Each structure stands twice: as C-alpha cells, then as structure tokens.
Structure to design on (412 residues):
C-alpha cells in the first residue's frame, strides 16, 4: 500500500493531477473517495478496496471529468477498470491525456471469481500478477445446454427481474443520455417482470463494450447471472469481428461506424 | 409444437431499394407465396436495429425475415455491412439464450429477384411452421 500512497501523494503535491479517484478506509468501511491536494493527510487512509467492496470508479471519473474538463485526474484501476477507460476513450467519453493510472493487480481468488482474462492494469502500483483465467466455465456450461433448456434457464432468471435498472445504473460503460430500456416504443412499460427481451437488449448494448467488471451482477437484487450473458456477447464479438473489448490496440468498435466493411456471410436458412 | 393448423406470424423488414422492389416484382409476376408475412418497408436494412427484431419477437412474431441488397449493391453503398454484422451477432445471441437462432433470417434479394423473393418467403414460412410457436411468444403470453 505504501508504494501506492507515495505515488498518489507525489502526484497531488506536484500538481500533476487535480485529484485522485480511489478508495479510503473510513470508520472501518472501504469507500470510494476523491482525494485532493488540500486534504493531503487523507492519502494515509488511501487503500485498495478488497474484492467485495468495489465501486464503478470509471463512472465517478466521468462525472468529475465532465465538471472539470480542463483538469487531469488520477484514478485507481484494476485490469477491468483500465479496459473500461480504453473503451471510454474510444467512445469519446474521456480524454486519455487527462487521466493518470494508479494500477492494481488483482489477487488470484478475485481473478478466479471473476473468471478474468486480464486481472491487472498496465502499470502496477499494488499487488502481483496472478494467473489469468482464459475461459469462462459459466459460459461453457450454458453453451453445452440444449436450446430449450438454455431458454428455460434464462427465462427463470429473467422472470426474477424487478426492473430496478441497477445493472445499468452501476455500469461504468452505460453513458447514454437516453436509454433504449426506457424507450416506450421498444420496451413495454408498467410491468414487472419486464419484457423477456429486456436483458437481451442490454446484452446487445454491452457487446464489445462490457469490460467484465461484474458490478452489474453484484448489484442485481435478483441475482440474475448478467455477467454470463455479457461475457458471451464479448466472446461473440471476438469470434465474429476479431474485436477484443477494452484492448487499446483493438481499434474502433465494430458497432461504431456504419459502413465498415465486413466479410461475414449470411447464414443458410 | 406439431400443431398442423399453426399459422405463424412472420415480420419482414425489407429495404426500399432491393428486397421491397423484389417483392413488388414477385407480385406483378403473380408468383405465389404464403400470406403469413407482414412486411415493414425500411429505407435500408442497415437501419434495422436488433431492438426492432427483439421487439417483434416479444410482440408475438414467430419469425423475422430481413431482406437487403446484395453486398456491393447497397443504395447507401455500405449500409448492409452493418446489417450482416448485427444480424449474425443477434442470431448467435438468440442461440445462446435458447431463443432459436433459426427464427431470424437474413437474405440478400435484389429488385430483379422476384422468384427468389417468393421462394425465400415460401421456404421460411414452411420452416417456421415446422418449428412451431416461438418460445419468446409463449413466454410473453404466459406472463
């Protein structure tokens, strides 16, 4: 933790950044916090939050950056958070010139729980690299099911939805001002559970955008395995378009431009 | 599932420049095809969002047929690249969630291909008839 605190303190003291979005231990609770030069003593309480206490820091940074567009900010990032930043740069939501990374490598138990293929940031100020998890067993289990069984399993989950929009509201990648999920021409209103397609519409939006932080699933009061759905969406985008979500080298998202050529063929009837 | 009297509802999203004109040609050529299809004309198949397809299934469609210009013949030059990307992705997502990827079909049909249009609609209707009602529809009706 010392290395991380020294880095943050230095960044703030030297005025390289106007603030640092990270975590603080307050009254023995790990909370997201905005550190500034004016309250430098708080950096002594700066921590890396344990896996069970994660917040969408990328989302908080977007709000701060929108309010202070001229300023540069530091942010604590895990592998997933950094993938999120890369996508947000591509979608024009953040300026990479105005973000400084304070990187974290996740412990093995966190990577195993997340089935994370990249559980560390490109700079590591805390933690050690662990073994990444290349394949998701949760996705493979559904893949192996017959279509009827898969449908019944998903339907059972979708029926539990109370339409709280928690998955969307916590998502660091959900930055749209208008949301299809609330469009009365696309989604029935006034019913719970919502339309069966509710989660599918979100899954479409998450494909090539979801950075697999898993906050949606942790946030869901109905325990819908959203992550499995979005992991599959990203795997499809990789298979079909060769697009690796969150990678800085991947270029623009396959959905971004109307008119990008594709060599895909139609499926036979 | 094997209800012989089952008449599927099929929604067709056809592009104004090719497939819709192909449907016109099938019509003036007096080619027969089943009346199960309800056609929605769009300016380009690339404007058909996966939302529209999912919404159609939610509202009780048993099948969705998308028709666009052949690759290279798009009136807007490259609109149908987006169509193929979206629909291939959606087909695979439907498969993963057990919603029957075969209920969504994309076919390139030009304005000169009236017979191909009629044949595609005939085959697709027959296929959906054999598949029976859509699971998404049954789930929506039960809710």
């Amino acid at each position: 933790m010392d290395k991380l605190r020294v880095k943050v303190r230095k960044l703030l003291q030297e005025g390289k950044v106007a603030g640092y979005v990270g975590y603080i231990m307050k009254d023995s609770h790990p909370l997201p916090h905005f550190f500034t030069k004016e309250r430098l003593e708080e950096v002594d309480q700066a921590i890396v939050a344990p896996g069970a206490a994660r917040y969408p820091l990328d989302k908080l940074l977007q709000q701060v950056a929108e309010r202070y567009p001229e300023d540069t900010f530091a942010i604590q990032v895990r592998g997933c958070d950094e993938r999120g930043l890369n996508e947000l740069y591509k979608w024009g939501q953040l300026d990479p010139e105005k973000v400084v990374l304070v990187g974290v490598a996740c412990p093995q138990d966190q990577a195993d729980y997340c089935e994370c293929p990249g559980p560390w940031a490109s700079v590591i100020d805390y933690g050690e690299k662990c073994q990444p998890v290349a394949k998701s067993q949760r996705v493979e289990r559904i893949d192996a099911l017959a279509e009827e069984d898969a449908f019944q399993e998903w339907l059972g989950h979708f029926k539990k939805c109370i339409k709280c929009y928690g998955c969307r509201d916590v998502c660091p990648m959900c930055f749209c001002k208008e949301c299809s999920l609330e469009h009365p021409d696309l989604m029935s209103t006034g019913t719970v559970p919502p339309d069966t397609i509710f989660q599918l519409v979100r899954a479409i939006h998450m494909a090539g955008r979801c950075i697999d932080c898993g906050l949606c699933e942790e946030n869901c009061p109905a325990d819908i395995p959203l992550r499995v759905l979005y992991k599959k969406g990203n795997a499809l985008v990789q298979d079909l378009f060769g697009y690796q979500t969150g990678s800085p080298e991947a270029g623009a998202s396959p959905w971004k431009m109307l008119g990008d050529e594709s060599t895909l063929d139609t499926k036979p009837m | 599932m094997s209800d012989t009297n089952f008449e599927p509802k099929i929604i067709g999203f056809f592009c104004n420049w090719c497939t819709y004109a192909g449907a016109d040609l099938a019509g003036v050529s007096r080619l027969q095809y089943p009346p199960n299809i309800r056609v929605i004309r769009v300016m380009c198949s690339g404007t058909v969002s996966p939302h529209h397809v999912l919404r159609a299934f939610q509202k009780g469609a048993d099948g969705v047929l998308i028709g666009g210009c052949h690759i290279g013949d798009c009136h807007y030059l490259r609109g149908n690249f987006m169509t193929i990307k979206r629909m291939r992705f959606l087909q695979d997502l439907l498969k993963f969630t057990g919603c029957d990827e075969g209920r969504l079909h994309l076919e390139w049909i030009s304005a000169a291909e009236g017979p191909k249009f009629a044949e595609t609609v005939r085959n697709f209707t027959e296929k959906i008839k054999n598949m029976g009602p859509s699971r998404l529809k049954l789930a929506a009706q039960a809710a």
Summary: Residues 137-241 of chain A form one domain. The longest strand of chain A covers residues 19-26. The radius of gyration of chain A is 20 Å.
